[in-house]
Amino acid sequence: MGVEYSIAHAADLAANLPQQSRCMCALEPALDWDRKDYLLAEAVDMLRLLVWMQTKDGHKGRNRPKMVELPRFKAQGKGQEERLSAEEYRQQLRQARRQVDTLRK
After folding, report:
1. Dist CA 49 CA 71 (whole Å)
2. Most Cβ neighbours (<10 Å): which of 12, 40, 60, 70?
3. In the prediction, which pLDDT does 103 show?
């Protein structure tokens, strides 16, 4: 391969990145884990529950063990905007529609 790449070549490379590449994981943190990681976390959670159920706390239903925090739930709290009411959402959609309509004229 040469020293210089065309924009089309760079776009082709970016479009075909593996799911667990740094770029893809930055866009979607849930891609940081593959299926094996999720299954392993599930197994760990179930094992914790089984052990906990055999304890006095488990019989009384207190001090339940914490589950493994999955990347998709970690990301949900970061960078989220405020939640909108239904009316605020409709207002934003109307405003966007007006902008599109003015561009068509």
Report:
1. 21
2. 70
3. 72
Residue 38, both tokens: 């999720």
- Any alpha helices (H) in the chain, and if so which ranges? 7-15, 22-27, 35-53, 56-60, 71-76, 86-104
First to last CA, the chain: 48
pLDDT at 74: 56
Q: What is the pLDDT of residue 69?
A: 86
Q: How distant is the alpha carbon of residue 6 from its chain centre?
A: 32
- What is the C-alpha to C-alpha distance for residues 66 and 40, in angstroms, rounded to an integer? 15
For residue 65, the 8-state DSSP code is: P
* Regions of the chain with pLDDT less than 50: 75
CB 60 within 8 A of CB 99: no
